[in-house]
Amino acid sequence: RCWRRQPSDGSPSRPAASVPPQSRPTFLFLGIVAGVSLFLDIATKAWAEVTVSARGFEPIEVIDHHLSITLAYNRGGAWGIFRDAGEMVRKPFFVVVSVAAILFIVSLYGRLHRSQKSLTWGLPLVLGGALGNLSDRITRSQVIDFIDYRANWVMHLNGFVHKYVSSWTITDHWPTFNVADIAICVGVGLMAVDMFTARKNGQPVAEAPVSPVLPIETRPS
């Protein structure tokens, strides 16, 4: 016989509340948002590669001294991590991490409540971005980046980090990124919003703890 621990106030215990299937967001929505993110990522990477290579790999200035289209190939992960690792180590590692993140996202999405709007949008965006960079890993063994951003605040930020990490480079250049990275960052931001607001507003929460997991191979390179 299985005995259930009684609450300290003497009231009868109740089973943990579950989320009814009709109250959960549909996997169709997950597929549409993730699919659109994936399509935009693949399309923009193809456009950048064709356009910039046709110009002799000369960057396209969008906003002078701030934003340009510069073609770059990242063999590593976040900020070039594992870039110098061997192909037999690097590719399987990033593929496994990406697949694990994708399985986590799909599993968590099936336990959401419709009221969790931030996660309902955030998880598909992260999924689409992860799939976009994963497709590069599988087909090219490297990720195409093309959005090159520079700003004074980046310089100040790097200068601040340099005070504590002497090997850190001081530059106004943010690591080149792509549309998949944007989707992941926006998605993780929405996941963080849900973490900080769900309990405060008394909204239903997912049946599993939520933590913004950003696959290291899909962060800005």
Primary descriptors:
221 residues; alpha+beta; four-stranded antiparallel sheet; 5 helices; globular
What does this structure look like?
This protein has helices spanning 27-54, 87-109, 117-140, 152-164, 179-197, and strands spanning 60-63, 67-74, 143-150, 173-177. Helix 1 packs across helix 3 and helix 3 (117-140) packs antiparallel against helix 5 (179-197). A four-stranded antiparallel beta sheet has the order 1-2-3-4. Helix content is 48%, strand content 11%. The chain has 221 residues and is α+β, with helices and mostly antiparallel strands.
Unreliable sequence segments: 1-5, 208-213
Mean pLDDT: 82
Element-by-element helix/strand order: HEEHHEHEH
Major β-sheet strand ordering = 1-2-3-4
The DSSP helix count reads 5
> What would you call the structural class?
alpha+beta
Tertiary shape: globular
* Percent range for β-strand residues: 5-15%
Distance between the termini: 56 Å
Q: What portion of residues is helical?
A: 40-55%
Radius of gyration: 21 Å
Task: Indicate the topology.
Elements: H1 27-54, E1 60-63, E2 67-74, H2 87-109, H3 117-140, E3 143-150, H4 152-164, E4 173-177, H5 179-197
Antiparallel strand pairs: 1-2, 2-3, 3-4
Helix pairs in contact: 1-3, 2-3, 3-5
Summarize the structure.
The chain is α+β, with helices and mostly antiparallel strands and 221 residues long. The chain contains 5 helices and 4 strands.
